[in-house]
Amino acid sequence: MSDGTASRRRGTRRPPILLVMLGGFGLLFLLIPLMGLLGEVAWSDLPELLGRPVVVDAMRLSLLSSVAATLLAAVIGVPLAWLLAKVDFPGRSLVRGLVLLPLVLPPVVGGAALLFALGRRGVVGGPLHDLTGLVLPFSIWGVVIAATFVSMPFLVITVEGALTALDDRYEWAGATLGAGRWTVLRRVTLPLIAPSLGAGLILTWARALGEFGATITFAGNLQGRTQTLPLAVFVALESDRAIAVALSLLMVLVALAVLILLRNRWLRSL
Amino acid sequence: MSDGTASRRRGTRRPPILLVMLGGFGLLFLLIPLMGLLGEVAWSDLPELLGRPVVVDAMRLSLLSSVAATLLAAVIGVPLAWLLAKVDFPGRSLVRGLVLLPLVLPPVVGGAALLFALGRRGVVGGPLHDLTGLVLPFSIWGVVIAATFVSMPFLVITVEGALTALDDRYEWAGATLGAGRWTVLRRVTLPLIAPSLGAGLILTWARALGEFGATITFAGNLQGRTQTLPLAVFVALESDRAIAVALSLLMVLVALAVLILLRNRWLRSL
Amino acid sequence: MVEITVTGLDAKIVVGRGEDFRLDMELRIPPGRTVALLGPNGAGKTTAVMAIAGVIPIDGGHIRLGDHLLDDPRSEVLVPPERRNIGVVFQDYLLFPHLSVVDNVAFGLRSTGTGKSEARRAARLWMDHLEIGELAAARPADLSGGEAQRAAIARALVTEPRLLLLDEPLAALDVTIRAHLRRLLADHLDGFLGPRLLITHEPTEAFLLADEIHVLEDGRITQIGTPDDIRLRPRTRYIADLAGANLLTGWASGGTVVVSDFELHAADTQTEGPVLVTIHPRAISVHRRQPEGSARNTWPTTIKRLEHYGDRVRLQTDLPIPLTAEITPGAARELSLEQGGEIWLSMKATEISLGAA
Amino acid sequence: MVEITVTGLDAKIVVGRGEDFRLDMELRIPPGRTVALLGPNGAGKTTAVMAIAGVIPIDGGHIRLGDHLLDDPRSEVLVPPERRNIGVVFQDYLLFPHLSVVDNVAFGLRSTGTGKSEARRAARLWMDHLEIGELAAARPADLSGGEAQRAAIARALVTEPRLLLLDEPLAALDVTIRAHLRRLLADHLDGFLGPRLLITHEPTEAFLLADEIHVLEDGRITQIGTPDDIRLRPRTRYIADLAGANLLTGWASGGTVVVSDFELHAADTQTEGPVLVTIHPRAISVHRRQPEGSARNTWPTTIKRLEHYGDRVRLQTDLPIPLTAEITPGAARELSLEQGGEIWLSMKATEISLGAA
Amino acid sequence: SSGERTELLVSAAASLADGFIAIEAAYEESHPEVDVVLNFGGSSALREQILAGAPTGVFASANETIMNDVAAAGLLHEPSQVFATNRLAIAVPEGNPAGVAGLEDFDRPELLLGLCARGVPCGDFARTALQRAGVTPVVDTDEPNVRALLTKVELGDLDAGIVYVTDVIARSSVVDSVVIPDEFNPTARYPIAVIARSGAQDTATKFVSFVLGAEGQAVLADRGFGVHE
Ligand SMILES: Nc1ncnc2c1ncn2[C@@H]1O[C@H](COP(=O)(O)OP(=O)(O)OP(=O)(O)O)[C@@H](O)[C@H]1O
Ligand SMILES: Nc1ncnc2c1ncn2[C@@H]1O[C@H](COP(=O)(O)OP(=O)(O)OP(=O)(O)O)[C@@H](O)[C@H]1O
Ligand SMILES: [Mg+2]
Ligand SMILES: [Mg+2]
After folding, report:
1. How many Å is the maximal CA-CA distance in chain D?
2. Which residue, judged by its Cα, is nearest atom 8 of ligand 1?
3. Hey, which of D13, D15, D17, D201 would you mutate to test ligand 2's pocket, going by the most ligand atoms within 8 Å of its Cβ?
4. For position C173, what pLDDT does the model report?
5. Which residue among C88, C193, C319, D128 has the highest number of C-beta atoms inside a 10 angstrom radius?
């Protein structure tokens, strides 16, 4: 063995240089486009811009629909994750694959598929309309459905992973104390996976906030009704790019603020 | 306490009915759009369609670029995840938020941002072009860069989570046996997080395969050079809907096959 | 207060686990009695607990608590765990990390419909009883091992269960505090009137806490008896090792026992045929030279190994028969014993106990 | 073969951990000797191992192995762990789950540049030596505790380290096989020529495996000595508890020792002033009635607690001084002792040993 | 008070956004009882929405083929009318750094050139013009719509692209243009129609008349559109 050559000290050891370089490059990769965006912003117009009704409407709608989509995804996605993790039903691995589908499908195609299925003349939307008079596209319901469709996989994957990794015995402990399966789920299982659940919800929300293709195809682009921020950006791109860029930036900043704030709390565990 | 009333037996207990209903609804939510898509397919034209050069070219390019994007994401994303998990540098929580940015940014805006930055006259692309004559848009490089930008977060998040959860002491064990940090990374850390790494790579690949908005904005759309399957679908939507639907279906089936195959191996651990 | 019917456990548990493990045992515990289920890792102890608690259904046999049939494959009865009213103290306690200690203890009452404040009040009563009243607001992660143990016991007892299952309640603890907590556990269990099952692989725990010990090895009960029975008349090598005794197999005939071609003289001249021979390490005397006197068994050998334990010294010999003897450190020094040294052993005939094999 | 310089360890380790823990200890181990670092949970034992192995840098002091300075904040020297050539056997072995056993053992050589087949050949040699040669292809998850221990030792030894650190190498094991593995460990360590540090909180382990014991409590060394020193002259309550002895504090003057207002007579008439009084439980005799005879200390008391351990019975008394006595099960039966019963204790003056407090 | 207003959903091609926002304002001023709600998107996406039963009252397409699809599905109240025309121009980055002179430059492989994709009206028209000029284009990208193409020209990533005259007028501050001679330049027609069964056919018909009337045409003419025949 060669003698231990002295190396400089204090604090932790320096990470390998190649790793730092590659990681720094990865970071640059994320930063450069943001810089590009920042370079295009007409900063002086920003305050006036953000007060416009179009922008205010879009902002409100974006927040509302992304939160609603996150909640809907929680209500149907968490049980789906639970079934995938805990119940050994036939075709489970097929369903596992299906869950990832909205990730692969380009959102515009996803929106078209939603339209085929849930439009007023769709396979499901038709009967639904005949029975109840409900029209899903061109309403906030359409926006929420489109956003839920594209973002739910994030929640299902995260929660299923956490449930699979969870120590079953806590649930047994709950059961021996007289808690039925439902009570166990509510008072033991969900609190125990709270960090992963939180992380999954944040990812879902972020994806729902940025959703564009499926929404414009399925829900249309109606100011004040279905025009979310990304859709407003799209219209603005037709006329004034500076506005579009400013709106994008606004969206990014809102999202970033929320993510950084919550991430240090929840996303650790992801 | 009330007497234990007899309940039917054999096998495991039935899961709570509400949970099954909600989970089933969640599954329906994923299935219905797929059914809508299937309902629109002109099955008889399918074989001829899939043999067309446009389709073959797009398929080849999609597979090539999605795999390349996954590899690039691995090369720069894994080190980034490692730095985020292991090195306590200033601004780490800001970077943690930044990593999620491409998730929030509508892909078209992301593509525009890439163009601002890496275009022929962009902040970075300009000097790059002047120095080397390299033009990133309108080439497969552009496709790969766009796909990497939107899909890398999946890898970084998954790997960072796994690294944070990893028992450090395995790495110490490696070090005391004479392995430098680089060797430890290669021979201990990465193999130990292999399941999460695999899961992250699959998610990344799936997202890269479905990528549309950033690609068309940044890399353009030329058959055989930058036209991936989602782009072909979009263009077909403008002219012949049947082709578009058939192509979407093809893409979904390829992705589903790969996901189901790999998922049972890797994604468990996510 | 809820009425408690004090009734015994009567179970025959047949259940498979994984590929090739199968538990097949009977268990009867009268009210107020503690049975220890003692066995090595993987013997099936936890499997038995889970079957009784209702977490895994049995494949054959039955589980009955008083007149309540809890599980019986033949009559298709399976009461789910939440309706069995069986208290379980898990090996590493499994206190819910997201709840305060008082909410952990109150969990059972809350789950069965009691209101929050009333459940907390009842929880506090039990906590005071177990002397952890001041820890109500603490999180489980902040408790010491002993405090966590008491919280787990309080949590199990607060629902006034009809049966108490304790799965290695001391295994998670540091050796130096285990003795102390064992005493406390004995005290805490005193007030519980139902049957109790204590799972352990620590003989001391079983000897100190149980009225009766069932030894479980590889899914089968190999011995049932009082702590003294088990200690003095072990029936398998595993139990003998636990009790610290030498266990040999031989052939007895008129007071002579042949063990691997070597003849021992026993006081018991009645037992004949194949026998289990138990010899306590303290009953073996060690000498530097051939001893004179009344001991009927005496032979020379060499020390294969010499070990110092706190206040005693154990020495092992291999030939003519494998035996462990125990002496005081003083005696060891006096005899200046060392590994590989030549010695003589002697043993009175009355110290050799024989049991039919 | 690599050349090995057999050299001793010389360390002064000052390092903080978390908010309020600080380790400050010196440690010197000559080549070929085993020092046991014995201490309760959280005393800082693992911290010491990590500092010596180089995983955490020390804040003060120095770590020197032979003439190699490994860590010294003042001279800004810090050799990273991979260049210290120190073998570590971790508490739960930490065998790499993704590698076969032979690749685990070969890991060190592979990491330092040896080719695959040659590293495997060397690994197999060590594995054969430790009698796990046939497990080469197995995965760590399939090993029993004893096999895993040997694989971990082989993995540490194959790089021919200059110092061996063993962090609670037996803690992960079932009590019933621990004794067996302890013996094997002693054998396996015999061939290693460098200094060895054994971390443990099991006194038996320390007594059996170490040449010298350092007792670590709350970051400080509280006693250093041979196993006999530690056993016979414990200096803290923790050590006395471990050794099974009664440790009291009192005031000695001319052969009379006052312990909580009670007078004991000791043979030692020299020691004066505040003293540590050590009394071994076996040195205390138990009687039903007031004993006659030569014992100079004798008094009546009641049994506070009676405990049966395999082959001995311990009884505790509280008044006038808290003492634990130990007798045989036979004696206990003969005296028909029971909890709460009235007894007399006696003790010879020669059995009371005094040390300056 | 807005609750009493009749709502009219107008789906218009995204390239018409600027003009239709102005028309909406003008129309609502003269018809306070009507609330025009604009829905901008790609013509094909709008078609899918209408085919799927969207409550669209008026459909203004940038593409006659797409309007024909809707007509073929029997969803038009009455046949569509052309409300605007457009012609093509070559867009080049400010200062025309590559020195593009006309359609003849579109076969120079060393230039970065873009067109709209085939099947997209501006792409089909551009190819018609090139064919008339006898040029076989060598392009680097088939953009999905004019805006995408124009953005790349503005940023200098393309040396030239064929777009509509209206587009270079709207973006004259950031792009320059090269005229395409009339003999090669095809005319794009923008059809508008009332959608059947929308439940607001009267209102819709009035809106279409407004677009075709003097006020609507003036707004469109301001933006460079040719007024309808
Ligand atoms: N979930 C499981 N699936 C398959 N096999 C299992 C499972 N749990 C336990 N086993 C097997 O069942 C057998 C009995 O295990 P059990 O946990 O009951 O033993 P134990 O006596 O409690 O052991 P310990 O002292 O280690 O707790 C073992 O062979 C074990 O490998
Ligand atoms: N990573 C850490 N961060 C902060 N504090 C730590 C960390 N690891 C250990 N400590 C603290 O340092 C002290 C010493 O811990 P150490 O692990 O060295 O004890 P030990 O003697 O090895 O105990 P054990 O017998 O439980 O292994 C403890 O108070 C512990 O809480
Ligand atoms: Mg167990
Ligand atoms: Mg430790």
Report:
1. 78
2. C17
3. D17
4. 64
5. C88
Q: Sign of torsion, CA A73 A76 A81 A84?
A: negative
CA distance A40 to A242: 7
What's the rounded mean pLDDT across residues B73-83?
Answer: 94
CA atoms of D23 and D17, how far apart (whole Å): 8
Residue C178's pLDDT is what?
Answer: 64
Domain assignment of residue B11, yes or no: no
Give kind and range of the element (H or E) at residue D209. Answer: helix D203-209
Output DSSP code: residue B16.
Answer: P
Chain E: closest CA distance from residue A116 (Å):
7
Residues of C in contact with B6 (CB under 8 A): 69, 75-79
Sign (positive or negative) of CA dihedral A158, A161, A165, A170 = positive
D293: closest CA among D347, D245, D329? Answer: D347
Buried b (16+ CB within 10 A) or exposed e, D70-86: bbbbeeebbbbbbbbbb
pLDDT at E136 over 90: yes
Residue C285 has a pLDDT of: 83
The answer to whether B105 and A248 are in contact (CB under 8 A) is yes
**Rounded-to-integer distance, Cα D139 and Cα D22, Å:** 38
Residues pairing with C197 in the sheet: C35, C165
Indicate which atom in ligand 1 lies nearest the CA of residue C201: 25
Which residue numbers in chain C have pLDDT < 50? 1-4
Chain A residues touching B75 at Cβ < 8 A? 22
Position B29 in a domain: no
Residue D60 in contact with partner chain A when CB distance is under 8 A: no
- CA-only gyration radius of chain D, Å: 25
Q: How many domains would you assign to chain A? A: 1
pLDDT at A236: 82
Is the bond leading into E191 cis (omega within 30 degrees of zero)?
Answer: no
Whether residue A99 is contained in a domain is answered as yes
Closest CA to B233 of B222, B224, B241, B244: B244
The Å distance, Cα B265 to ligand 2 centre, comes to 37
Residue among C332, C275, C271, C323 nearest C297 (CA): C323
Domain assignment of residue A255, given as a range: 46-269
Q: Is residue B18 part of a domain?
A: no
Q: If you ran DSSP here, which 8-state letter would residue A134 be given?
A: -
Give the ipTM of the model, two decimals please.
0.76
Task: Calculate how close chain B gets to E210, using CA atoms only, in Å.
Answer: 29
Name the one residue in this structure whose structure tokens are 């049957």. C195
Chain B residues contacting D, CB < 8 Å?
167, 169-170, 172-181, 183-184, 187-188, 191-192, 194
CATH number for A68: 1.10.3720.10
On whether the CB atoms of residues E15 and A237 are closer than 8 A, the answer is: no
Residue D81 near residue D116, CB atoms below 8 Å: no
D310-328: burial string, b at 16+ Cβ within 10 Å, e else: bbbbbbbbeeebebbbbbe
DSSP string for residues in D271-285: --EEEEEEE-GGG-E
C1 touches chain B (CB under 8 A): no
Beta bridge partners of C223: C215
Whether A259 has a pLDDT exceeding 80, the answer reads: no
